[in-house]
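hey
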């Protein structure tokens, strides 16, 4: 599992010009939130998803080395199979390392549910849809978490 994390001051996902998910950290009295782009590969499990959710929730990347858990910062979770693109050969990426939708979708849901169980305010994009993600990256801070 790969999670590309961005520290944001706002983020939203639109499908067909309709906002389907958004976070506004100021609504949670937090200066920042996190955007988590989540890619799933073959062999990933619910335990891996839960472990990475815990890691993200406690990762000290917000102001004054605080975590999302310290501030109850909101997290926007967006499925992103392209995180497993293989671009080593030719000009056309291979997607063979990305898990198929019936495998990936429940694990993205498990990741989001694990964050909620930890106390995170979570919004989620629409799996499999053509999404437009708008965000304001702060710092910028962008990190890659991997299992």
């Amino acid at each position: 599992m790969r999670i590309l994390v961005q520290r944001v001051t706002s983020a939203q996902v639109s499908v067909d010009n309709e906002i389907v998910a958004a976070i506004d950290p100021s609504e949670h009295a937090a200066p920042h939130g996190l955007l988590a782009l989540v890619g799933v590969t073959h062999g990933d499990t619910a335990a891996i998803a839960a472990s990475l959710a815990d890691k993200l929730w406690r990762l000290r990347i917000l102001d004054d080395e605080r975590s999302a858990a310290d501030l109850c910062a909101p997290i926007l979770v967006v499925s992103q199979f392209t995180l497993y693109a293989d671009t080593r050969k030719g000009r056309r990426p291979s997607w063979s390392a990305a898990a198929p939708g019936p495998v990936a979708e429940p694990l993205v849901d498990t990741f989001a549910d694990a964050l909620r169980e930890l106390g995170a305010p979570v919004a989620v994009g629409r799996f499999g849809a053509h999404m437009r993600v708008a965000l304001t990256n702060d710092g910028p801070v962008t990190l890659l978490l991997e299992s």
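The chain has three helices and six strands. The first strand starts at residue 2 and ends at 15.
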